[in-house]
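Look over both lines:
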Amino acid sequence: MISAKLIKDLEREGFSLDFPGYESNEERIIEILKEGNQRLNLALPLILRHGFDYKMIMNKLTLMKPCGKLIKDFKKMIIISSRIFELEGIDNGHLESIIRESKIEEKIRKEEFQYYYDSFKEFTGKGAEEDESYLKEQIKLRGKLNINKALSNIYSPGKLRIMDKIFNHKPLTNTELKYYYRAIKPLNLSILNEDMRKYARIIESIRKIKIGQDS
C-alpha cells in the first residue's frame, strides 16, 4: 500500500495518482465510520453538509459489527454537525429533521463538541485561505502576462532581453550598456512622460477615426 506521506509529497510536486472514488456520499460516511478513528471522524461534519440518505446508512450499519457503536457514533456526529452548522450559519434543516423524526438524543460533552467545532473552523478556514492564495496567484500571473504582452508591442526582443537583465539585477556588458542609453532609455523616458501619456489617452478616447482619400 502506498504511504499517505509519499502521496501527499508527490502531489506537492504536481504528480497525482488516480484512485477510485466513492459513488455516493453515503459510502464515504460509512467508510469513515467503519475506520473507528476519532481523527478521521473530524471529516464527517464537512461531508454531512452535502446531504445524505439517513435510512440507507442506518440499514447498512445494522449489518456491520459492532453495529451498536457504529450507530451511536453516527448519531453523535449528526448532533455535533447540526450544532456546528447552526453556529456557523450553515443550513442544517436536513439534520434537524433527522434528529427530530428519529428522536436522536445522544449526549455530547462540551469538550468533545469544542474539539470538533475548532477542527471544522480550521478546515474550512484553511480552504478559504487556499482559495484566496490561488486567486492572488492567478491575478499575479494574469498581470504578468498582460505586462509581457504590452512590452512586446513596444520593445524588440533584443531590448526586452536587456531590460529583463536590468530588472533582475544582472550586470550588462559594455555593448549592452551603450545600447541601453542609445535606444532603450529615450523610449522609456517618452513612455514615462506625463504629457505623452495624456496625448495617447486623448487619441485612444476618440472612437471614430476619419479616413481621408489617398493622394
About this structure: The CA atoms of residues 103 and 198 lie 73 Å apart. The chain has two domains: 18-128, 136-205. The mean pLDDT is 81.
